[in-house]
Amino acid sequence: MTLFACAALVIAAGCYVLFPLFRDSKGAPDLDLPDETEADRLLDRKTIIYRNLKDLDFEHAMGRLSDADYRQLQADYKNDAALLLQKLDQLGASEDLDNAIEKSIAARKAAPSAPKTERKSFLCPSCGAEIVPGKKYCADCGKRL
Ligand SMILES: [Zn+2]
Q1: DSSP letter string over 73-115?
Q2: CA 128 to centroid of ligand 1, rounded, Å
Q3: Greater pLDDT, 22 or 36
């Protein structure tokens, strides 16, 4: 009977410890990720192909790849890249991306000018000392603002 109780206790403890692991793994996909577009997928693949080409150059330079294999693989990757770029051009993705980047840069350039004008210093109505905005009490006279 004691053995059974111990076994039940061990199982219960095990479930208690392990339960969050399974619950978390189920809960994770609830993240609000933006939907991946066709252009995103193509851009991802483009990045992978470019990386593969770099790796290929490296492997060849290290002497781990024969000249024939290198040329064959390089031609394959370049072919893939050309097809991808063609598809991207058809989608107009590269232009959209450029426009999006330009817009985001313009927005960021325009943004900082606004908060700077708001950063004015205030004066204490009681003693006239300068007050850091957001403070509740005057640093000079201690009066509540
Ligand atoms: Zn004051």
Answers
A1: HHHHHHHHHHHHHHHHHHHTHHHHHHHHHHHHHHHHHHTTHHH
A2: 6
A3: 36
User: Residue 102 carries which side chain, given as an amino acid letter?
Assistant: E
Output the CA 126–ligand 1 centroid distance in Å: 5
Q: Whole-model pTM?
A: 0.41
Exposure of 43 in the CB half-sphere (CA atoms within 13 A): 13
d(CA 83, CA 89): 10
Q: What is the CA(137)–ligand 1 centre distance, in A?
A: 8
Cα gap 41→47, rounded to integer Å: 10
Taking 80 as the threshold, does the pLDDT of residue 69 lie above it?
yes
